[in-house]
Amino acid sequence: VFDVFVELIDLHLLCNNIKNAKKCYETMSKLDIFYQKQSLYITYLNYKIYSHDIDDKIKRYVDDFIPFFEKSSKIELLIRSRLELSKIYEDCNDLDASLREMKRVLQIVEEYMLGGI
């Protein structure tokens, strides 16, 4: 059920439907069983939905979200989070960092396609 909420929220965000994404997030975050088991996922979605200081947002992606998704073998979320980080860098006009993230995404996809991940 938790994964369904995560995908639903992501779909709403991709469609730029922030209002419905927030509703799903608020519903999901009230479910204690999910919150205890998946607190980093909830934090990740919180950072996607709500505004945060850009430096703090980058730090959370680099220090928490990306390493967690790498260790948990959540390839789709790893790729998605790296793409999001690339976009954050692009929006901040840090094009070198954005390009590095895009190259890393391509490397992950290539490894995955070759069965290395």
Helix content: over 70%
* Biggest β-sheet description: none
| Structural class assignment | mainly alpha
Low-confidence stretches: none
Estimate the strand proportion.
Answer: under 5%
The number of E-state strands comes to 0
Provide a descriptive summary of the structure in words.
Helices cover 82% and strands 0% of the residues. The protein has helices at residues 2-14, 18-29, 32-37, 39-49, 54-71, 75-91, 95-113. The longest helix has 19 residues, at 95-113. 19% of the residues are buried.
List the SSEs and their pairings.
Layout: H1 2-14, H2 18-29, H3 32-37, H4 39-49, H5 54-71, H6 75-91, H7 95-113
Helix pairs in contact: 1-2, 1-4, 2-4, 4-5, 5-6, 6-7
How would you summarize this macromolecular structure in one to three sentences?
It contains 7 helices and no strands. With 117 residues, the chain is mainly alpha-helical.
List its traits:
single chain, 117 residues, mainly alpha, globular
